[in-house]
Amino acid sequence: MAGAGEESSKRTCIWRNARLATMSQSLSGLGVVDDGAVVAREGRIVFAGPAAQLPTALMRDAEIIDCGVRWITPGLIDCHTHLVHAGNRANEFEMRLAGATYEEVARAGGGIVSSVKALRAASEDDLVRETMPRLDALIAEGVTTVEIKSGYGLDLENEKKSLRAARRMGDERAVTVRTTFLGAHALPPEANGDKSAYIDLVAKKMLPAIAAEGLADAVDGFCEGIAFSPEEMARVFEAAKALGLPVRLHADQLSNLHGAALAASFGALSADHLEYTDEAGASAMAKAGIVAVMLPGAFYFIREAKKPPIDLFRRQGVKMAVATDCNPGTSPLTSLLLTMNMAATLFGMTVEECLLGVTRHAAAALGMSSETGSLEPGKWADLAIWDIESPAELVYRMGFNPLHARIWRGR
């Protein structure tokens, strides 16, 4: 027997007496409709626009919800997280407060490798139990889609365990989960410093096995001096492309290894961080249609001084997304609303850029533009309804959650 949520998703539902920020490309700015309505049937939007244009036929036998002149946006999308992890790294936070750099923490045996040890010691059930509160915090702020990376297992069985735990998040909560295989995140201790051999393991053994089980929607890597070179990442991406998996890249965060240009050469969905990206990299991203994912939580938490070149991305016409980068070492952040405020105050992004960055452009960074990210017919009825006077409040406020209701796939 179908549950109440399933039944409600099959009915026609109409949200009326609302102001819409549709995020539609066919409208300017945020796609605002002052007196709007959204209609969903079988979990999909069939109408979103001015209430005066609502077809009468859609109103027959429909459930009508009066929104009380509240604002409706698409459900928010957190397009870059490392949500599945075990334990925390508060001790490293103390080290950095005492003056240690990100690189110094990593070379002292901390950093990603310490999270690897914790994840390997945890069971899949442990990971699900520990991750669920972090996911619930995002959901409570109107998030309806979240990307979750692996990258703390660094061997086949533990990477699979991490990805299975991530998939279970979407089974146990009303949220869409996209999983990303991040085997090329760091060098595990047993590799004994041999990056080439480990990259062979990732590309030739781990990736095919994970693809065969359908555990990953995309492949990512960390292209940096303390991680992997562009040449090493290219080997992983070539293997991913051969298996039909799209790629993304942690690029140009701590130095300019031309990761943005590498991502562009492989037609990546996104390049993320990008503090040191140069004009050639931004131009390559623009030509390839790659989304730049801004991660102000990490910038703030590790006290970086080099900001990503926002003006350069604007001039080149590069779409910009915004995400929490939730992870235990450099961005223990589970508020996408606060992340938008950080993107505005730290990076100088506009309200419009921030809101598009957690909706339409975040969907593009996940290859989901046809499914979600805007209020348009054919897309999932993923909505967030807000007690606000203007969309700017979603970026302006800190530590305040004005979510009135969250709708996932029409229910």
TrEMBL record:
Its main location: cytoplasm. GO terms for cellular component: cytoplasm. It is found in: Cytoplasm. Fe(3+) binds at H80, H82, H250, D325. GO terms for biological process: L-histidine catabolic process to glutamate and formamide; L-histidine catabolic process to glutamate and formate. It is an enzyme of class 3 (hydrolase). Zn(2+) binds at H80, H82, H250, D325. Belongs to the metallo-dependent hydrolases superfamily. HutI family. This is Imidazolonepropionase. It comes from Allomesorhizobium camelthorni. The gene is hutI.
